[in-house]
Write a structure and sequence with these properties.
mainly alpha, Serine Threonine Protein Phosphatase 5, Tetratricopeptide repeat, 17 helices
């Protein structure tokens, strides 16, 4: 879930991309990406639908089709996969050489819809197409997005790392700051891929690179997540005192309040290891109160929530 958080923060803060062949970036047309609020897809859909009404008679077809691909994305983000595919079915026959950016974004959103519905092989094929076509038409902001999505949908650790490395190298050589901002996402994703494979020392190295990147960029939200990731990895490496120092510092930076719940959870784990059960109970209780309201966690990690509740009770005994 932390992997998703850093990506969503990144997406929400990324300005509309400037792509050589993209007709959406003209002075009299609204930047599509700037309308996104990833924490509220339904609200965002309303903005896109209104924009579609306003621009349908005068805007270039590439621009209109891009809006529709993003409407489809609002559906896939809310698990309305049939609706998402239906919108993309309307877009597909209108794509041509005259709509290069819309085509890249169509491939991305069709792939994301399959990926979110756990149809990984279909998703991966489309993301690879988006990567190759995005590079062909020099829409690099979307080709690096596609590389990152292949990294997510791929089945093996080697494939995940390979595609993240491809995207990282493309982002590093770019002069476009919107493309270069993907560097931190690739370090973060490789870190979590390695962490989940229990390669904790290698994961730590990636998280440290992620931290350094966001520190230089002065992107405080993402920097905080990178530090949290380092601290969690320290815990798995047995470096508990260092982990505790980082988590307490992160809490202090937020005036003692953790709205995400994840710092509370880690503090509970660390105090449990120290044998300070009352402190552990306090933090587990706070973490469960917040994280139990997370629909994604409820669906994908119910045992994690059950464990938090159990530890809250056990710590009080």
């Amino acid at each position: 879930m932390i992997r998703l958080l850093i990506i969503l923060i990144f997406m929400s803060n990324t300005a509309c991309a400037r792509v050589k062949k993209e007709p959406t970036m003209t002075n009299n047309l609204t930047g599509i990406n700037q309308l996104w609020n990833f924490s509220n897809p339904e609200e965002t859909r309303g903005k896109f639908e209104q924009l579609l009404v306003e621009q349908s008679e005068t805007a270039p077809l590439d621009y209109i089709l891009q809006i529709k691909t993003q409407i489809a994305r609002t559906y896939s983000l809310t698990a309305k996969f049939e609706e998402a595919h239906s919108v993309l079915d309307e877009v597909e026959p209108q794509l041509s050489a005259e709509t290069p950016v819309a085509k890249v974004r169509y491939l991305l959103e069709r792939g994301r819809t399959f990926n979110s519905n756990n149809e990984k092989s279909k998703a991966t094929e489309l993301f690879v197409q988006a990567y190759n076509y995005g590079r062909e038409v020099e829409a690099y902001i979307y080709s690096v997005d596609a590389a990152h999505m292949v990294g997510i949908s791929s089945a093996t650790l080697d494939d995940k790392l390979e595609w993240n490395q491809k995207g990282l190298e493309e982002a590093e050589k770019s002069n476009d700051q919107n493309v270069r901002r993907w560097i931190g996402v690739f370090y973060n994703n490789m870190g979590w891929d390695l962490f989940e494979a229990k390669h904790y020392t290698e994961a730590l190295a990636k998280f440290e690179l992620c931290r350094d990147f966001y520190q230089e960029l002065e992107a405080n939200d993402r920097l905080g997540i990178a530090k949290w990731s380092i601290a969690k990895t320290y815990r798995y490496l047995g470096r508990n005192s260092e982990a505790l120092a980082i988590q307490m510092a992160l809490l202090a930076e937020k005036d003692g309040t953790d709205e995400s719940g994840y710092t509370y959870e880690e503090l509970g784990e660390l105090y449990l290891l120290k044998g300070e059960t009352e402190k552990a109970k306090t933090y587990f209780s706070k973490a469960h109160e917040i994280l139990s309201k997370d629909v994604w966690l409820e669906k994908n990690e119910p045992e994690r929530l059950h464990r938090l509740l159990r530890l809250t009770a056990e710590s009080s005994q």
